Amino acid sequence: MTAGPRRRIVIVGAGVAGSILAYGLKDIAGADIICLERAAPEDHSDAGTGLNVGPNAIKALRAFLPDLAGTLVEQSLPWNSWRISLTNGRELMNLPLLDVADNPGIRIRWSALYRLLRQPVLQHVRFSTEVIAMRYARAGEAGPIVVETRNRRSGVTAVIDGIDLLIAGDGRYSAVRETFLARPQPEFLGVCIFRLLVEETRPELIDDYEQWFNGPNRLLAFRVPGNATYIAGSFPIPADRDVPAEAKTAAALRALYTPADGAAHAQSAWLIDTICSNVADIHWARLQEADMAFADPNGRILLLGDAAHPMVPTLGQGATQAMEDACVAVAELRQALAGNDGDLAGAVRRIEQRRRDRVEFVVRFSRDATDTMLAGADPVSGSLAKNAPGFRAKLARLYRDAPAA
Ligand SMILES: Cc1cc2nc3c(=O)[nH]c(=O)nc-3n(C[C@H](O)[C@H](O)[C@H](O)COP(=O)(O)OP(=O)(O)OC[C@H]3O[C@@H](n4cnc5c(N)ncnc54)[C@H](O)[C@@H]3O)c2cc1C
Asked: Which of 5, 142, 169, 375 has its CB 3.0 to 4.6 Å from that of 17, i.e. a possible disulfide?
């Protein structure tokens, strides 16, 4: 049997999807895998604070890349429950995750997640290397795809040609997507979301994943490894405006989450005080989403993670879906590269077929679950409705129907 032609696959971005893909493909014979990452190996400054990864991603990783799943589970805290209350202490929902999932999710710091995902592929990623231009090859260039890079430390530029498949793992503001498809139009939901990681814990008050509402203004918090607490807050803002400067003050934030009768329950009182003492360290953002796209018509460009489907973070599914995407992509690309024809465009089509309906469901469900965070929302009726069989069945679909190997 003669070996097929050697394929060159370039992955842009060693974030969640890109690192997992590099890990799953690094030892494949018959392919050059090049992963380009603009950050330095230990630079997690772009990474946010903490995150919860859904049970569905852990289930998928266990099926496709069990070693990696084992490492993540070992180095994180389990996400076992989801409780919703009002900031005055009234409980509205208390869900053991195993009622709707086959295994727990995880709670982890962003910096730890990036470190754990990048560490096994350090030799396979060109760090500090930013992709600055890319195109279908011009006459005289070795194609089908060409990218230009710049080293952020040395300033040296380089050209990589002869690329058979370019994979966008470059996140929400994907330059790959903008170059080969179009810049996705963001749709803002009219909700501000802020994130904070404090090197402080009160495990008797805050441990596993919980949310607290005061009107549509919501706090969310959980403990992460290394004696830290992740806190996120949200509140409605006009959809067509940036987060107003006057909302970013301790006094404004205290007012947003303090119940009308002035008596915040012990958990919320600690969170409010902690937020107000750390206002300078808060990361601010707006809830937004955009259209989904997985590939160019030629099957030469594959989009994964936020580059393919920027979604609202309400159900903690952004990185979770990037992991599911990467698992499916690893399996299909391995199979294509193992075959003699090396039909990468066929693999791209199959990846899109396996992912489209699933991701569409997750994007819509994440948006629908944002109902209690919108201006004028009633968090009491909205959260109580999350106890109903309809919502629970959707959660079970979300957490159990992970891609199977
Ligand atoms: C407020 C908020 C809270 C969130 N909470 C959660 C949560 O709890 N759980 C969850 O699952 N998800 C959460 N998410 C979503 C999550 O952050 C993203 O969905 C996830 O990081 C997407 O992974 P990715 O691999 O697509 O991209 P990323 O992880 O963003 O990685 C992109 C990588 O590409 C690199 N890159 C970009 N451009 C270039 C270039 N030109 N050249 C070279 N490299 C480049 C970047 O440096 C980066 O390393 C949250 C998002 C927000 C905004």
From this structure: 169
